[in-house]
Amino acid sequence: MSPYVEPGGSWRPLGLAAGVLGLVAVLAAVLPGPDLPRLVWVLAVVAVPGVVAAGVVSARRAWTVRVDAVGDEPALSVGPERVPLAAVDAAHLRAVGAGTAGVDAGAPVLGGGWSLPRGRSGLPLRTTDGRTVLVPTRDPVALSRALLAAVSDVPGGPPGREGTLEA
Fold this sequence. Notes:
Blueprint: E1 4-6, H1 12-30, H2 38-63, E2 65-68, E3 75-78, E4 81-84, H3 90-98, E5 121-126, E6 132-137, H4 140-151
Antiparallel strand pairs: 1-2, 2-3, 3-4, 5-6
Keywords: Membrane, Transmembrane, Transmembrane helix
């Protein structure tokens, strides 16, 4: 099973910033008037993409959602926080999908932060010890499917291929 990965940020803002910077450079070359000093251009060409790239890298590190069912420790991770798949309450996750369960008031966001990042919704996730967290995701249905598929493959969880013959 390939791991489910949902990037925490897109590189699109870097392309947009470079495009706007290029447009400003073309306009500065075409339009009459005094030229900007080279130092200003060098700072703009280095600083603007650098700041945007730093923002993208930090968003990808902080908010990337991974469901990795292979390896020694299968886990759901959001940024630096990890929840072992053996600790995921699959019955609650199925109930959330059916609309009969939700999230506890004041549940923390997995990955940290005060609230969900912009553009994401929270998938309620209960662990086997009763703790509920919100998993920030752009596609809760796909993440729920990936979690349910991965949890069924965890030792001690419900078997994923019951009744099949293995060669």
